[in-house]
């Protein structure tokens, strides 16, 4: 575990020192301005967290893809020999990408508390917001990993595929059958009130985690032949 | 370390880069891989290092600590030499104090605070070598290690290779620059048409022995070698001229 975590720190440090780190923060800023330029009315806080979670999926994906693409291709080979086996290099990349996205998600939770909400919401709303950001973070990290350079070499193809996949997820999740994809629209519908979110949480978690795990497994499998 | 029926291609319908390669690399081996451009040398090195998976066949008994120095070290990274090597040392689970002695030996002490992006080709190559040597490697893979190196480090490299081999490590070198030419104890691996031909290690001639050089047509090389061996001479095929 130690080589993997050391390698994740190396990747995280490389990303922080590169210009790429600015891009998702600009995206986050845009989403925050759209959502919180007007104060959120009382009782609408969870709903606004759900909107934020849905809109931040491509931002999380962009951050994950940016982090995984920062390292030169040959450095990945060096890292994988230094870590002892290629699987550790793949795991370290995903851990570092998730770490960046945790920072972004924490900001997405905290910013409305300072500038967006009329009053400080209660614990159920904060907890609901946290769960929705975790859903979004997982979806974005998996999507970004599948669009990263080892999988899709051409940057234009990669960017279009990533944004196209997000648009497809939104469109497919509009239909009433929620298990067809990551149920982004269902998150928003369920987050009308904390009680309604609680009621649907088990089902939404299972479907979201299933699709994210499938995407991450596909990424790990594809990386076996794409060092 | 053993390669059995090793075959590799980049995609399902792509041509085979390597096919049915059988090799035995016992501890202490120094192997020099030669072959034309595109013969699959770098691919073989990556398969040996474990960064690429064989399409068919297997590699067994790969030593746990592998050092891989690439042909071109990737300088487009936002670290100084020290910061980079410290990260690599941490990944290998060894203290950063191991960096100093290697920096001194490879003549790069003055470069430690230089950003990787500001390094010359030769200096960057030294960083690539240093990270591969930080932990004593059981398998050291050097892709064109003599490329761009100054005279002092070129002279030092064969001694480094010998030290790794003497400690029981396997060293595999792809070498267009003939930096190991005449080096004793080197097994020559020639890559041709996707297969590897190994010719025995060139042991130094002992007192009372002489080395003769015979140039023959490639088609006759194997037959001539076998004929000399049948006569009881210590004959080895060195491979095709570049």
TrEMBL record, chain A:
The chain crosses the membrane at residues 21-38, 89-119, 125-147, 159-181, 201-222. Keywords: Membrane, Transmembrane, Transmembrane helix. This is ABC transporter permease. It comes from Sphaerisporangium corydalis.
From TrEMBL, chain B:
It holds the Pfam family ABC_tran. It comes from the Bacteria. The keyword Transport applies. GO terms for molecular function: ATP binding. SMART domains: AAA. Keywords: ATP-binding, Nucleotide-binding, Transport. Residues 1-218 form the ABC transporter domain. PANTHER family: ABC TRANSPORTER ATP-BINDING PROTEIN ALBC-RELATED. This is ATP-binding cassette domain-containing protein. The lineage of its organism: Bacteria, Bacillati, Actinomycetota, Actinomycetes, Streptosporangiales.
